[in-house]
C-alpha cells in the first residue's frame, strides 16, 4: 500500500469471501473503520477494528485481534495469537487468547478471559501508532538500516497474501444490507447476503449476491455473476458482462450489456443503450424523430432492418413482373388485383395506381392518364 493512501476509502470484499449462517468468512484479514456496525460474526486471519465499532456476533481470529477503545462485541472472542483491547472495550461473552493479552483500562469481559501468554493490564499505545513512532525515531537518528529491518520483519510475519476485507468508517454491514458512503469493490467467487448500497459498485466474476445493487455512480458486473435483485444507479452507467444474470430490474442513465447477459425484469435507461454482440459493439440511441436506430461499428441501418435500394435490386427484376419493355405492372387500388398488360403494348402502368389500363385498347382521353417511362 503506498504511503499517504487511505486504506479505508472503500468497501473491499476480496476473492472467496462468503457469508455462512450469519458469519463473514475470509482467508485474509478483516479491517473495520471506526464507528461502524457489523451484525455478522467475523472469521478471518487478523481482525482489526477502530473506535466504537459494534459487533453483534462473535469474533474468531486465526492470528491477532485488535479492538480499539469503546468497541463492543456481543459474543465470544477467540484469538489464535495475541490480542489487544483498548480502554472501555466490552465483550459480552468469553475472551480466549492463545498468546499474549494486552488490555486497557475499564475493559469489561462478562464471562471472563483466558490467555496462555503474558497478560498486561494498562492503557497501552495502539500498536500501529507505536510502530510509526518507533520508525520515525530510527529515521531521525539516522538508523535507516535498522528501520528497514523492522519493516522487513513486519512484512515477513504476514503469512497471508490474501487481500483484506475492508469496511470503511461509519459503514453498516448486516444480513439485510451493506451500506457505505464510499465506493464498493467485490472480488471473484464470493457469496454474499444483503443489499449493497455504495457510491459506486464493481462486482467481479462468478459471484452470488443475494440482494440488490444501488449506487449513485457506475455499476459494473463481471462474467458469471448472479444478482438476486435489482440493479439501480441514479446518474451512472451500468455495465453487464457476458453470462451475467440479473434476477430483477435494471435502471440507469446509460446501459452497456453483452448479448449473453440475462435480465429477468425490465431494463430502463434514460440515455444510451449499447450491446456487445459477438465481439461487435452495437449502439442503440434515440434519433431526432423519436424512432430508434442501431449502429454496428461505423455502419448505420434502421432497426427494422430495411436498407436503401441498390442497383443490384433493380437488375434482379424479371420480365414476369414487368412489361416486355421493362415497365411496371399497375395495381388496382380498389380490388387489389394485378392487371396484365399486352406484351406488345409497351406502355407503363400509372405509378399512382389510381387508373385501370386495358390490355387490348388504348384510353381515348389521354388527359385523364399520366404515362411516365420507367428509366
Largest sheet: 12 strands, mixed
Strand content: 25-35%
Shape: elongated
Number of helices: 3
What does this structure look like?
The chain is mainly beta and 375 residues long. The chain has four domains: 11-124 and 160-165, no CATH class; 127-156; 183-281, no CATH class; 318-375, no CATH class. It has a twelve-stranded mixed sheet, with no helix packed on it. Strands 1-23-26-29-32-35-38-39-40-41 form a ten-stranded mixed sheet, with no helix packed on it. The longest helix has 14 residues, at 127-140. It is elongated, with a radius of gyration of 36 Å.
Helix-strand blueprint:
Layout: E1 11-13, E2 18-20, E3 23-25, E4 30-32, E5 37-38, E6 41-44, E7 47-49, E8 54-55, E9 59-61, E10 65-67, E11 72-73, E12 77-79, E13 83-85, E14 90-91, E15 95-97, E16 101-103, E17 108-109, E18 113-115, E19 119-121, H1 127-140, H2 144-156, E20 165-167, E21 172-173, E22 177-179, E23 184-186, E24 191-193, E25 195-198, E26 201-203, E27 208-210, E28 213-215, E29 219-221, E30 226-227, E31 231-233, E32 237-240, E33 245-246, E34 250-252, E35 254-258, E36 262-263, E37 267-269, E38 273-277, E39 280-286, E40 292-296, E41 299-302, H3 311-315
Parallel strand pairs: 1-23, 3-6, 4-7, 4-20, 5-8, 5-21, 6-9, 7-10, 8-11, 9-12, 10-13, 11-14, 12-15, 13-16, 14-17, 15-18, 16-19, 22-25, 23-26, 24-27, 25-28, 26-29, 27-30, 28-31, 29-32, 30-33, 31-34, 32-35, 33-36, 34-37, 35-38
Antiparallel strand pairs: 2-3, 21-22, 38-39, 39-40, 40-41
Amino acid at each position: 500500500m503506498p504511503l499517504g493512501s487511505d486504506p479505508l476509502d472503500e468497501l473491499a470484499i476480496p476473492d472467496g469471501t462468503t457469508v455462512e449462517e450469519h458469519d463473514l468468512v475470509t482467508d485474509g484479514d478483516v479491517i473495520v473503520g471506526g464507528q461502524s456496525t457489523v451484525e455478522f460474526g467475523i472469521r478471518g486471519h487478523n481482525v482489526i477494528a477502530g473506535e466504537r465499532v459494534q459487533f453483534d456476533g462473535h469474533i474468531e481470529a486465526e492470528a491477532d485481534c485488535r479492538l480499539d477503545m469503546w468497541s463492543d462485541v456481543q459474543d465470544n472472542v477467540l484469538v489464535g495469537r495475541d490480542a489487544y483491547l483498548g480502554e472501555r472495550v466490552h465483550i459480552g461473552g468469553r475472551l480466549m487468547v492463545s498468546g499474549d493479552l494486552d488490555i486497557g483500562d475499564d475493559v469489561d469481559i462478562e464471562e471472563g478471559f483466558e490467555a496462555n501468554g503474558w497478560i498486561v493490564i494498562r492503557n497501552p499505545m495502539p500498536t500501529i501508532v507505536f510502530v510509526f513512532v518507533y520508525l520515525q525515531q530510527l529515521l531521525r537518528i539516522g538508523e535507516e538500516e535498522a528501520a528497514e529491518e523492522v519493516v522487513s520483519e513486519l512484512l515477513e510475519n504476514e503469512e497471508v497474501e490474501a487481500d483484506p476485507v475492508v469496511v470503511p468508517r461509519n459503514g453498516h454491514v448486516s444480513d439485510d444490507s451493506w451500506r457505505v458512503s464510499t465506493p464498493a469493490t467485490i472480488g471473484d467467487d464470493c457469496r454474499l447476503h444483503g443489499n449493497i448500497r455504495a457510491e459506486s459498485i464493481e462486482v467481479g466474476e462468478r459471484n452470488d449476491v443475494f440482494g440488490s445493487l444501488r449506487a449513485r455512480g457506475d455499476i459494473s458486473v463481471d462474467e458469471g455473476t448472479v444478482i438476486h435483485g435489482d440493479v439501480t444507479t441514479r446518474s451512472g452507467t451500468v455495465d453487464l458482462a457476458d453470462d451475467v444474470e440479473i434476477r430483477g430490474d435494471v435502471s440507469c442513465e446509460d446501459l452497456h450489456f453483452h448479448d449473453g447477459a440475462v435480465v429477468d425484469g425490465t431494463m430502463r435507461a434514460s440515455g444510451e443503450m449499447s450491446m456487445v454482440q459477438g465481439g461487435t459493439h452495437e449502439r442503440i440511441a434515440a434519433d431526432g424523430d423519436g424512432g430508434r436506430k442501431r449502429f454496428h461499428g461505423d455502419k448505420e441501418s434502421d432497426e427494422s432492418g430495411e436498407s436503401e435500394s441498390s442497383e443490384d435490386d433493380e437488375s434482379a427484376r424479371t420480365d414476369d413482373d414487368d412489361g416486355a419493355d421493362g415497365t411496371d405492372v399497375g395495381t388496382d387500388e380498389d380490388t387489389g388485383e394485378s392487371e396484365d398488360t399486352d406484351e406488345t403494348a409497351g406502355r407503363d402502368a400509372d405509378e399512382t395506381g389510381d387508373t385501370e389500363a386495358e390490355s387490348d385498347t388504348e384510353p381515348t382521353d389521354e388527359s385523364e392518364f399520366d404515362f411516365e417511362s420507367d428509366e
